[in-house]
Amino acid sequence: xxxxxxxxxxxxxxxxxxxxxxxxxxxxxxxxxxxxxxxxxxxxxxxxxxxxxxxxxxxxxxxxxxxxxxxxxxxxxxxxxxxxxxxxxxxxxxxxxxxxxxxxxxxxxxxxxxxxxxxxxxxxxxxxxxxxxxxxxxxxxxxxxxxxxxxxxxxxxxxxxxxxxxxxxxxxxxxxxxxxxxxxxxxxxxxxxxxxxxxxxxxxxxxxxxxxxxxxxxxxxxxxxxxxxxxxxxxxxxxxxxxxxxxxxxxxxxxxxxxxxxxxxxxxxxxxxxxxxxxxxxxxxxxxxxxxxxxxxxxxxxxxxxxxxxxxxxxxxxxxxxxxxxxxxxxxxxxxxxxxxxxxxxxxxxxxxxxxxxxxxxxxxxxxxxxxxxxxxxxxxxxxxxxxxxxxxxxxxxxxxxxxxxxxxxxxxxxxxxxxxxxxxxx
Length: 427
Ligand SMILES: Cc1cc2nc3c(=O)[nH]c(=O)nc-3n(C[C@H](O)[C@H](O)[C@H](O)COP(=O)(O)OP(=O)(O)OC[C@H]3O[C@@H](n4cnc5c(N)ncnc54)[C@H](O)[C@@H]3O)c2cc1C
Hints:
FAD/NAD(P)-binding domain; D-Amino Acid Oxidase, Chain A, domain 2; 2 domains; nine-stranded mixed β-sheet; FAD/NAD-bd_sf; oxidoreductase
């Protein structure tokens, strides 16, 4: 489906109130992935995705927040899911494999090195995972969506939602500013952290402010990264250096550097040469000489978890349901597992009953929520425990961090549990 098909969807809405099975609000990584899962597992469902901004590949150069200059580490379990969606053969052109993970405490000589060739689990195609730039991921997802029956409508800003016995009634504004309406048996809120939809529906979130920012940029490397992902704990906060595919012969890596807010603001104010020197000094020489830094973007970090993730005719996915600290690279991986479970739950229900309104049934959504609870709790806990552990210079905390690294280096059960969480194969 190209842009013209999207225009058709708008035009169709002009002629009267449309009824669909599922309406997804938000076309970021979460909304787009769920749409593809539904196309794969529930091909008979009528699904509409509404996004307020122009979609990737629209030719305007504008981008959705999900598909900005960040890179995403996709865990082995996620690669397996993307392969099942038929995306891997296309996506892998834009990915750098993660074949080794080095976790270390800068300046203390202690570290663990995990090699995919030596592990018999937590792998996909001989790697722990792969890293893709979000700007490349977006077009891959939307090109794949164009091959399905999903209607992606953009720009479409959802402004109001009401629920009744039959489902949700959405009002949205199209690109020309005209008011449109749609009815859906199931409304999926995928409109990001601080979701306006959740606010409108009175859904509260539990929030922890980390008072930290993640600085994100692309670095040029003098030598090949060799498929190594580094997680390095420094006095200035944890740094992740993730392998990226070479571009025009240049070796590259994605940096995610988590700092206290004031330090982050000061670092952002540096010119690129001074910033690069600070990164090299903080990170050290494990990846060789750093030769270039791209533009630095910064993200304020918090943990934000919705107190309700489902109601009758409503379910929340992605950042709108849980927004995590990026240190462990778990947010999107967890979302993919949620989306797959939701699509499979809907698919099972469709095979049992063809009643239209069963799509948004409370028992179905409760069952989905129960199934996802443990994985969500463990993953959120994993992401939330790491920042204080690794940001602290306190000798007691530093001691337990070093014990953790030692365990990772020498104790197979510690390594297995770390890898199984990091690999995202679920439970
Ligand atoms: C620095 C950083 C690094 C990260 N690295 C990793 C990683 O390595 N691995 C990993 O797994 N995860 C990672 N994550 C997490 C990952 O980025 C998120 O899981 C992902 O962005 C989730 O996107 P989303 O679609 O839920 O939200 P968003 O990207 O915020 O998308 C929401 C969409 O909804 C649209 N919208 C909002 N309101 C409306 C409305 N009223 N009507 C219509 N549309 C609307 C918005 O325009 C937007 O496009 C990282 C996060 C950060 C901050």
